[in-house]
Amino acid sequence: MSFIADLHIHSSYSIATSRDISPETIYKWAQLKGVTVLGTGDLTHPSWISELKEKLEPAGNGLFRLKKKYRGIDREVPNPCKGEVNFLLSSEISCIYKKGGKVRKVHNLVYMPGFEEAERLNRELGKIGNLKGDGRPILGLDSKELLRMALDISPDSVLVPAHAWTPWFSVFGSRSGFNSLEECFEELTPHIHAIETGLSSDPPMNWRVSSLDNITLISNSDAHSPQKIGREANIFDTELSYSGIMGGIKDGKGFMGTIEFFPEEGKYHLDGHRACKVRLSPEDTIKNNCLCPSCGKKVTIGVMHRVEELADRKERERPIGAKPYHPLISLRTLISQTLGVGEGSKKVALEYMNILNTLGPELKVLMDRSIREIETVTPSVSMVISNMRKGKVLIEPGYDGEFGKIMVR
Q1: pLDDT in tens, 190-242
Q2: What is the pTM of this model?
Q3: Phi, psi dihedrals of residue 335, rounded to the nearest 5°
Q4: How far apart are CA 258 and CA 306, in angstroms?
Q5: Which of 150, 171, 299, 344 gets the most CB atoms within 10 Å of its CB?
Q6: Nearest to 325 by CA among 248, 405, 235
């Protein structure tokens, strides 16, 4: 069975997230986007896991579904978008610790097969730090020990390093990461089957590092609001089940590829210093000794630069068995550009729902509907979707926490 899965989102209990996140709203937006499996996020937070246990029920496949009595929100979903939504228990954990003489800051995604196992993990993590303060808890815990803890609770648990290249909080991050998975996870490295590439990198960038050839490159939205669900996601052709999805991640069988940002749009793609509005290529950063040419302070080394440091392949060299990927721009962004108004405007919202009411969920429109079909509903948007699919885009790359700006040509 072919389906789309977004396995990294957050709840309203995480810092800097929308208050409008609930099991009901993410269930609704998963349908509007065309996402069949959604990570719950924030499984370690006591209030969120309590709400999930109240509102979800087993789907009989290791996944969970929203109980019928909470599905009144279905009336807000157009008929062409209605579909099955399953939840997979997940959480992101911030591990900050000292290793190899350096302070390491690594975010990790943990997937658990059931609530019982999740609560056992939470009891162990609660001995180490506060789980109530943030949906993504900050713990003084070695990433390797988090992996060991999860596997001791259940061999079906899976840990994936989150947004693996971002400068500040990732396994390969320029500020506090490692140069290899083996440095981080040591003898437990064989249990790392995937990394999350993050918004600022795409598969071709990761292909340049040959040590990742046998690692599944997954992509997720890291959504902090329901509307961002599916901005990056994974395509599976497996059994719709926890074991099917985790099996696809572990051995790549049935993992069909990813839906991606254009990586230049990510907020850590290039080097730079946002306070001075200075954006730099890796070459210019090296010429300036990693200092801002305006103020002399250290610049933030971005993802492209960091990949270049670890790369042992040329650009666009494709390893055997590499999976397809699909760079997309959100439908709201495309509508905004054609109408010449802001993405949050009423005009954009009305046109967005008009398209979904006729053609179905957003990702289907962006990827699968023929241009002729789209043209019958919205000629102007069909043109920009056509150009997007051809890669005809102009981008001011993101840097130092500033998202890039993208425009279809």
Answers
A1: 999 999 999 999 999 999 999 999 999 999 999 999 999 999 999 999 999 99
A2: 0.97
A3: -65, -45
A4: 22
A5: 171
A6: 235
